[in-house]
Structure prediction request, 139 residues.
Amino acid sequence: MEQFQLEYAQYLESPEWQALKDTHPDPKQCIFCETWLRPHLHHMRYPANIWDTRHEDCCWLCEPHHEMFHRGLEAGRRKGYALTCAWDGALKDFTKAVIRAQEKSERDSNGFEVLRGMTGEQLATWLKGESSPRARKRA
Prediction:
């Protein structure tokens, strides 16, 4: 892990990373809140060799949501969740789901429970702002 962190830090300072950011086809706006302020190019997945990063491996997040994603990923891991993208390659939806769960956790400490066992269709419904399909079943 230490070797990866060193190589990753070198990559983020490289002309290759800068070129990837400069040529990324998506608009430089957060995929979560659509703001254009302080965009960060976020790795949704890491290739085996970080130097092989492609446009489709990344998406734009504003600085606050980028930080929230990483806080959420770490919080989920501490709670024992295997937070990986299990939704048929829906990496942008996964990124949005982790941010939304972290927002919920910061309010009521139960945000990641809603993601447990959620299908891609249920995730899409939840991300549209509708209640969790499982929450509706309980009501």
About this structure: The CA atoms of residues 27 and 89 lie 21 Å apart. The beta strands are 39-43, 58-62. The chain has a mean pLDDT of 76.
